[in-house]
Amino acid sequence: MQRPSLHMEKRLNELFQKYLANHCTAEEMEEFFHYIRESREDEALRRLLRETYQSIRNESATFVNPTGELVVPEREEKNDPAFRKPGPVYRRRKLLNRLLAAAIISGISFGIFHFLDPNVKQAYANKNQVLKKSSTERAEYKYILLPDSTQVWLNAGSTLEYPEHFDLTNREVSLSGEAYFDVKHAAEHPFLIHTGRILTTVLGTAFNINAYPERSSVTVSVSRGKVKVSRGSQLVATLLKGQQVNVSEKDERVAQKNIEVSSVAGWQQGNLEYDDERLQDIIDDLQRVYSTDIRISNSNIRQLRISTSFRRELGVNQALEILCKLTDTQLFQKEGTYIIQ
Predict the structure, then answer these.
(1) What is the Cα–Cα distance from 282 to 268, expressed in whole angstroms?
(2) SS3 state at 321
(3) Rounded to an integer, what distance in angstroms lies between the CA atom of residue 105 and that of residue 110?
(4) Domain boundaries, the chain
C-alpha cells in the first residue's frame, strides 16, 4: 500500500482533530468520511486512532478500549463525583465512539481493530474478561438481555455466567440450570453455551437448554433455527426447528426426537411437561417450581420414568397427588416436607 502524501496526511489529521472537537462543517465531515469509506488512507487512520486512544487513556483511568467501548473502573463510577461531569476527556471519548460507530455504518468491513496495532489488538483480546453472574432462587424467574442483545429467560434455581462484553470471535456463556435463549444473529460470531461437558453452538436461533447439575443429562430443544450440540470434542447432534436431543454427561447415550414446537420452554407459560422423565428429576423440578421440600422415601421408585403434564397454578399438593396415582404411592406431610412412599 502506498504511503499517503504529506499533504493528504496533514489534511486527514486536520479533519480528524476537528471531528474530535466537534468543529467540523458538514462539508468537512463528508470529506473525512469519504476517506474512511474509500479506505485508501487506512495506515494514516490507524496511526491517528492509535495516538488518540493512547492520549485519552493517559488523561483518564476511564477510557475507550480498542473495541470502541467505554471502560469505567467500578470505583470511579461509584465514588468519584467528577465521573458524572462531562468534561473535555469525556466528550472526546463520546466523539471517538461516535466516529467508530459511523465508520462501521459507512461500510468499513475491517472494523476498529484493524485500525490498531496488532500487538495492541492481541493484548486486549487476551485480557481476562470480567464475568457477570445472574441467578434465580427457587420459584423465581428472570429475564436477561446480554451484551449482543441476545435474550435469555432463566428458569428457577438456575445460574448464567457471561462476560461484560463479548470478544471479537465468539460469544460464550455458561449455564447451570435451565434457560430459554433467543440468540441475536451474527454470522461470523457463533454463540456458545457451556453446560458441563456439553457445548451448544448457534448463530441465531431460539432454543431451550435443561442442564440442572443434579440431572445426569442435558436436554436441548429447538423452536427456531439450527443448533449444534457437542460432548467434549465430539459433535453428537445437529438440531432444527421442532427437534430435541438428550445427551448423557456420564456415558455415551444420545437420544434425539421430534417434538411440538409449542412444548419448547413450556415452563415460560406455566406448563409443567415431563416426557419419559425420571421421577426423581420431576420431584427436583417441582421443588424448584414451588420452593418446597419433597422427599421420596422409597429409593426403588426414584428411577421410574413418567410422562405427565399439568399447569403450574394447580399447586404442589395436587401435582404430587397426580404423581402418586401414576406410581401407585402415597403422599404424606411431615414438618413442612412432602414425603412420597
Answers:
(1) 17
(2) helix
(3) 12
(4) 6-125, 131-262, 270-340
Q: How much is the pTM?
A: 0.62
Q: Which 8-state DSSP code applies to residue 273?
A: E
Q: What's the CA gap between 305 and 172, in Å, rounded?
A: 34
Reported confidence tier of residue 77, pLDDT bands at 50, 70, 90 = very low
Could you name the CATH architecture of 270-340?
A: 3-Layer(bab) Sandwich (3.55)
For the ranges 16-25, 115-124, 181-190, 264-273, the lowest mean pLDDT is seen at 115-124
pLDDT at 187: 77
Nearest to 190 by CA among 207, 224, 166: 166
Distance CA 97, CA 111 (A): 13
The domain made up of 131-262 has a fold known as Jelly Rolls (2.60.120)
Q: What angle do CA 200, 205, 210 make, to 5 degrees?
A: 45
Q: What is the DSSP letter of 277?
A: E
Express as a percent the part of the chain with pLDDT over 70.
64
List 151's β-bridge partners, or say none: 145, 182
Contact criterion met (CB below 8 Å) for 267 and 178: yes
Strands of the sheet with 337-340, listed across from one edge: 293-296, 337-340, 331-334
